[in-house]
Amino acid sequence: MIALGTLTVTDATLQANGGNGGGGSAYRPAGGGSGGGILLAAKKLVLAGNWSVQAKGGNGQAGSAGNGGGGGGGRVAFYSGNTFGVMPANVATNGGAASGGSSEAGNVGTFRYNGDGGAGDLSFPFVTVRGSVILIN
Prior knowledge:
The chain has about 140 residues and is mainly β. The protein has strands at about 1-10, 15, 35-50, 50-55, 75-80, 90, 110, 135.
């Protein structure tokens, strides 16, 4: 979501979670789906109330002769004119759980935000946007 002015997220859950493994057989269980991506960009980003942003990987499917691995976590980014000094606890990019045996859990995804200390801190306005976006004016 992109806003040219203020983007307010209040008492909402934004999700791009991967699905749990399913549809596989007992001998070929399915792995979990990877988390998707969420972009919040605005001149001013306001996060208030009971909010959360999730891009978690799905859990692997259990089978009698094998187990599916967890899906990897997705990507979340906040581009804003205001800064966040610490990562908000309400953001989750966890990898999905393994279903057991020799299967593995999915890796944690990424979260970038203003002031996180990474190279090239994110800021608004940005130069290019790729993919589908919703423009709120």
